[in-house]
From TrEMBL:
<dbReference type="InterPro" id="IPR011009">
    <property type="entry name" value="Kinase-like_dom_sf"/>
</dbReference>
<keyword id="KW-0067">ATP-binding</keyword>
<keyword id="KW-0808">Transferase</keyword>
<dbReference type="Pfam" id="PF00069">
    <property type="entry name" value="Pkinase"/>
</dbReference>
<feature type="transmembrane region" description="Helical">
    <location>
        <begin position="6"/>
        <end position="27"/>
    </location>
</feature>
<feature type="region of interest" description="Disordered">
    <location>
        <begin position="362"/>
        <end position="381"/>
    </location>
</feature>
<dbReference type="GO" id="GO:0016020">
    <property type="term" value="C:membrane"/>
</dbReference>
<keyword id="KW-0472">Membrane</keyword>
<dbReference type="InterPro" id="IPR000719">
    <property type="entry name" value="Prot_kinase_dom"/>
</dbReference>
<keyword id="KW-0723">Serine/threonine-protein kinase</keyword>
<keyword id="KW-0547">Nucleotide-binding</keyword>
<dbReference type="InterPro" id="IPR017441">
    <property type="entry name" value="Protein_kinase_ATP_BS"/>
</dbReference>
<dbReference type="InterPro" id="IPR008271">
    <property type="entry name" value="Ser/Thr_kinase_AS"/>
</dbReference>
<feature type="domain" description="Protein kinase">
    <location>
        <begin position="75"/>
        <end position="365"/>
    </location>
</feature>
<feature type="binding site">
    <location>
        <position position="103"/>
    </location>
    <ligand>
        <name>ATP</name>
    </ligand>
</feature>
<dbReference type="InterPro" id="IPR045874">
    <property type="entry name" value="LRK10/LRL21-25-like"/>
</dbReference>
<keyword id="KW-0325">Glycoprotein</keyword>
Length: 381
């Protein structure tokens, strides 16, 4: 009886030991799997969040492509036509033969909000001076934008003297530069007043102006754009946005004034002045100190009623267009936002006669230089 009781107890202990081993196995193998399922569920929820985001914003009206479609239309990314901090742009072709530019975002920011923001902004636009978004790809970490193809590339390549020899091209001519400046102005006027919701671009610069076969300018790259209500005159930003050398002073120094459509006006003015000068507005390697900051150099010539000293001015027509662009550009980069014209006023100024324009005050503050990573205010005297 004693032996039988002992045997039964031993069997119980043995069964308990097996249970412990099984439990340990489950802890090692089952729980991580369960954790993996939870993480996977979170990823699915995040992915679903952006699917809903696309749908709620009406973005699905714009065609959505798979990543396989993107590879097919670019012939596996065979021909690169541009590159920037965002990634690369490739030339592609749709099934119907239409040429397209495909921007591949190599470093997606955050969880996709910037991408959704760009697609959302561009899907609301339809204007001859805004690049047309034909579709997009949003698949896990793969993000791409499909635009109409611009055979003459970005304005940046064609306006700087330093590129002429490298590209085998010359000065575009003042009539072309004038028409380009007027086209950019029309595009910004549309964004600020022509849409149901006002769109502030926040990154107007020569690199983001694309040119079609007839040199018609089209504003591109809406990654930093902000959509706001028409009735609001100013907006709030959590951080400065834009490209050094083109950022309005109030964007990085808030006591100057409120952030509004006038911030785009400033960037437009800096862009026009680079078109006029055929050089960067701020040149750290300039031979003379007076030539370091082009807006001050050209403003002094206007004040003294001297020849502007610009290249390829061959007649009175060229001189008038060049002077008009200079004066408008200088009005646009006034430090105080309230002094700057609105974009519809800029259009009127460019269309009018140069005799109707007076020389603006000297702008005494500039955007931080592109050669410096700092975003602090820089004083130019």
């Amino acid at each position: 009886m004693l032996c039988m009781s002992f045997g039964y107890t031993g069997a119980s202990i043995s069964a308990f030991g097996v249970a412990i081993i099984v439990l340990a196995y489950l802890c090692q193998h089952k729980i991580p799997k369960q954790k993996s399922m939870i993480i996977g569920s979170r990823k699915m929820k995040k992915s679903h969040k952006f699917e809903v985001n696309f749908e709620n914003r009406g973005i699905l009206v714009t065609r959505r492509y798979s990543y396989a479609d993107i590879k097919r239309m670019t012939n596996s990314f065979k021909e690169k036509v541009g590159e920037g901090g965002y990634g690369c742009v490739y030339k592609g072709k749709l099934a119907d033969g239409l040429l397209v530019a495909v921007k591949i975002l190599s470093k997606p920011k955050g969880d996709g909000e910037d991408f959704v923001n760009e697609v959302n902004s561009m899907s609301k636009t339809s204007h001859v001076n805004i690049v047309k978004l034909l579709g997009f790809c949003f698949h896990k970490t793969k993000r791409a934008l499909v635009y109409e193809y611009m055979p003459n590339g970005s304005l940046e390549k064609l306006i700087y003297e330093e590129n002429y020899f490298k590209l085998g091209c010359g000065h575009l001519g003042w009539d072309t530069l004038y028409q380009i400046s007027l086209g950019i102005a029309h595009g910004l006027e549309y964004l600020h007043k022509g849409c149901n919701s006002r769109i502030l671009h926040f990154d107007i610069k020569p690199h983001n102006i694309l040119l079609d076969e007839n040199y018609c300018p089209k504003i591109s790259d809406f990654g930093l754009a902000k959509i706001c209500h028409q009735e609001k005159s100013t907006i709030s930003l959590l951080d400065a946005r834009g490209t050094a050398g083109f950022i309005a002073p109030e964007v990085f120094c808030r006591n100057i004034g409120g952030i509004s459509q006038k911030s785009d006006v400033y960037s437009f003015g800096m862009t026009i002045l680079e078109m006029v000068g055929g050089r960067k507005n701020i040149m750290t390697g300039a031979e003379k100190t007076s030539e370091v900051y082009f807006p001050h150099w050209i403003h002094k010539r206007l004040e003294l009623q001297e020849e502007l000293g610009l290249q390829n001015v061959t007649g009175e027509g060229d001189k008038e267009k060049a002077e008009k662009m200079v004066i408008v550009g200088l009005w646009c980069i006034q430090t105080n936002p309230s002094i700057r014209p609105t974009m519809d006023e800029v259009v009127d100024m460019l269309r009018g006669g140069v005799d109707c324009l007076r020389v603006p005050p000297k702008p005494y503050l500039s955007s931080p230089s592109r050669s410096s990573p700092s975003t602090s205010m820089s004083m130019v005297v």
